[in-house]
Amino acid sequence: MKEKFLLCKRIFLFISAFVLLCNIDTQAQSIDKLEQFANGALKDALMAPSMVATNVDWVTGNVNAAKAHYACGMTIPYRLQASGLETGVKYQVTIGYDITKGGKHAIDFLTSFNRDTNHDKFGHFIDGSIEDVETQILLGTALEGTGPLYNNYELPPPDSNMVTPETPEAPLDGFNASKLEGFDSIRIYNGTITDLYNIEGSPGGDTESSYLVVEFQVDPGQSIILLAWGGNIACEELWGPGSSAADINGSPYHMYVEACSGLGGCGNKEVQLSATAIVAPPAIGCEVSATPQSCCYLEDGTASAQGTEGTEYSYSWTGPDGFTAFTQTITGLAPGRYYVTVCDLNDNTNCSQCDTLVLAANPEAPVLVGVPTGGDLGCNPVELPECDPNVTATVCGVPVLAEDVTCVTVGPTGDGCEKQQVFTYEATACGLITREIVTYTWIEAEVPVISTTDVDTDLGCNPQSIPVPSFSVTDECNPSAV
């Protein structure tokens, strides 16, 4: 009997040990944590210079304005770590996220975790800083310092494309925009994703969630994977005033593990972002200045604009006679009023317009240069004068265009041999005309003309008288002298 009891006890202990071993193995293959990136307190981010580099972190619970600063259109980074994984085994996790809450929109669609759209609205850049999530993605994980390999997989696009009255865009349009930017993927460290698909809620619903189903396996020789992705924060610009989650009290931005297969630790894996951490960045402002025209004949005015309340801007100018330009400073300007629209470089809906006046210089009469002096050309000049093509003009020392310098001549005129010719040189600039008159005189002398009415006659031999011929002389230059 004792031997039978010992045998039963041994069998019981073996079965218990086997069950315990199975439980330990199941628990070993588990989701360790789901975290979101707390990119620094809002009050610090709004300081100048920014102080966010002192307090970034990955957190598993609720994040509010004391830990993070985000704005609509930005991406919230998320990561999920699973460990105790076995090579050749496929695991599955279903990730859920709020798309609406109380009829307001929370997370439109998923993106890459390192998408930084609109961060410069807070007046600072993250490249190269501790706030750069690309450099912080492994911080505090079991993979930190191991240099793991990773693969990126394209996220499936949203099926829903509910268009709102405010804009023809919708979740699919926003996703496609991030796709063009190259930020439409989920990353896995130490593993491969074997299947990836959406289960979507309706953006038109009152309180809805969408889900991303991820099937994956660990790389040979590894036992830990890390998934990394992001969620786009819905904007009022898309869904209409008062319809984004920034208008909800509490923490409407939920990302959570809905279900898993082959893994333990699926329960209580949820992170929230408080609406207090979602702020509307200050409206872009603009300042503008101009320099006047230096000379009435020149188009040399300048104007320059400077955006405020942001970090990078676009500039669009209009002005007189269809003038357009797209630079911060414009030059070669005619007098007149110029208008500039300054926009946030990453948000062309956040804009401001201002204008400035390029003042005209005082009118200044042109100065003719090289005008001939005219005068008496004497008697029978060999060459008669013509308009001098070398005559020019200047305004403020600046040459006047050739077509604005003209010459008109009248003549020759005069009585008898006394002739004259008048040349009028004109220069037009700045609405003023400068005129100089040049007169030439000369004598156009002619050889006197001798004429007679007599004709040659043969008087024969020994004429008793010889007739005296009659002559007349004419001189057109001086008739009275004949």
General description of the model:
The protein has 482 residues and is mainly β. It has three domains: 27-277, no CATH class; 285-358, Immunoglobulin-like (Sandwich), CATH 2.60.40; 363-482, Immunoglobulins (Immunoglobulin-like). It is 10% helix and 41% strand. The chain is built from five helices and 30 strands. The protein has helices at residues 2-28, 42-45, 133-136, 171-180, 236-239, and strands at 30-38, 57-59, 62-63, 75-83, 91-101, 104-105, 107-111, 150-154, 185-189, 191-199, 208-218, 225-233, 253-261, 270-273, 285-291, 301-308, 313-319, 323-325, 329-333, 336-344, 347-358, 367-369, 375-379, 392-395, 398-399, 405-413, 418-429, 432-443, 449-452, 471-474. Strands 1, 2, 4, 7, 8, 9 and 12 form a seven-stranded antiparallel sheet that branches. The N and C termini lie far apart (182 Å). Residues 1-28 form the signal peptide. Keywords: Signal. InterPro entries: Ig-like_fold (IPR013783). This is PKD domain-containing protein.
Report the mean per-residue pLDDT as an integer. Answer: 83
Q: What percentage of amino acids are in beta strands?
A: 35-45%
User: Could you tell me the number of beta strands?
Assistant: 30
The Rg value, from CA coordinates, equals 47 Å
The termini sit apart by: 182 Å
Helicity, as a percent range? 10-25%
How would the global form be characterised? rod-shaped
Count up the domains. Answer: 3
* Uncertain segments: 1-26
**Major sheet: size, sense and barrel closure?**
7 strands, antiparallel
Count of alpha and pi helical runs: 5
Organism: Draconibacterium aestuarii
Keywords: Signal
InterPro entries: Ig-like_fold
Signal peptide: 1-28
